[in-house]
Amino acid sequence: EWTMKTSIVFLLCISVFPGFSQGRVVREDETGFAECNVFFPGQDPPEGFTEPFHVKICQQYNKEPRFATLYSTKDKIPLYSAFKFTKPAQSEEESWLVEPQVDDPENGLHEMVREADIGDTVANLGANQALTSDYVGSGYERGLLNPSLLNEEDFQVATYTLTNAVPLSPALSKSWHRDIGKVVEQALIPHCSKTDHLYILAGAIPSSVQVKGKVSVPESLWLAACCDAPERWTLGLVKKISDENSLADLTVRELEKQLLPEVHLFKGSCGEDKQSQEKREAVLQVVSQIRSGEQVGTSNNQETKDSGWVRRVAGIVATPFIKLLELLIYIFVELVKFVFYFLWLVMKRVVGTILDGVYGLWNGMVSYLKAISIVLIRIPYDVGRVIVNVYLGFLQIVRDVFSLFYRILSIPVGFVLHLAAFPYHTICAIPSVLKDMVTGIGGTFLLVIDTTATVLQGFYCIAGHIVKRFIPKGSSDD
Q1: 426 vs 458: which has the higher pLDDT
Q2: 43 by DSSP, 3-state: which?
Q3: Are 221 and 238 in contact (CB under 8 A)?
Q4: CATH code for 8-299?
Q5: Residue 296, C-beta contacts closer than 8 angstroms, at least 6 positions apart
Q6: β-strand pairing of 233-240 with 215-227
Q7: Most confident of 94-108, 195-209, 412-426
Q8: Among 253, 92, 279, 79, which residue's Cα sits nearest to residue 198?
Q9: Whole-structure pTM over 0.70, yes or no?
Q10: Where are the domains of the chain?
Q11: DSSP, residue by residue, 430-458
């Protein structure tokens, strides 16, 4: 039987401050599962899971790694979760989380958040992972590969993520958690001398059956364990979905053959064939006793029946008080959340108003100082420009006055000079005029002589031509 333990404080923490839960998708450039490699012997994760739809998730809580999960976005279920045993504890209230980066890799939320609080902050929510709505009305429960009852406090809170859950029938889910809990607590822990070196892998093999055409139902569940101690041993267990009471033991090598080709669950010393057969046989003997104990539990043993009836009656009597306590806790949590939210809004408004006022005052002061500075800087420039313009204007006036006097004085002076120079220019022009007249008369005389000579030459040529034409003709007649 599990030890009863109250963890209301941690439930309040996860309800009021869901941001403490973190589950980041491991990048391709990181080795293995990054900081979650501590959940594998030798910090070497299993080999052979290389499909592009396999996503590595390092499940964290309070900024500490709690377990590792290999998630299939195709089947929308985890293929395995790797964890270490912490301490058995009673399962507390469920607060389910989702991993935003599985559906939206570009999302700025690098941590798990409560599904109820996620709102519209994640694009394509549910495209690559299962949601609570996929289980509602399907007849299946969210069965945890890493059972919450094998963990306590922070480790237990971190298990309630949909990336750690597979669809199981209520009876199978109860049987799986019960069997794995007993195997770990009664068979594995007592026979491992170093419990902090007990590495556990719990996984599922997807089938073609799907919940609402989206989430694959496992065809079987499996568990692989390795005690990496001086007396080393490994163990494999398989539970068929078709038989909730089945629990077959086999070697890790045999288990690997039932998974994907070339899968190696354990590397390093845990992957070696050299093991302590004595320890392994002792573990298998306890597993066999657990199996037979399950069968005995289904017989008509009166003592077991009476004990079961007592538990049922106690449960029926205690249920109203438990529900009332849950209601009171829920109301208290909601009140605390409302108070925090109200205070946050008030503080946000007050601080926002103050900051807006300070910002406006600062902008006004800066604008005023800027305008004053520009005016002060431009005063010397404007004064200098006025002085220069006045000086240039004065020079222009002086120039115009001198120009006017020049124009007034230049009219009579020019006239007198031209009048005085007329006789001089007239007398000086007489020789040139006489020369031009003589030249003209001589040219005319020469032109007449040339014309007369040309006419006479023309007559001479005509007469000579006539003589040459007729005189030879007369001689031939004689």
Answers
A1: 458
A2: helix
A3: yes
A4: 3.40.570.10
A5: 304
A6: antiparallel
A7: 195-209
A8: 279
A9: no
A10: 8-299
A11: HHHHHHHHHHHHHHHHHHHHHHHHHHHHH
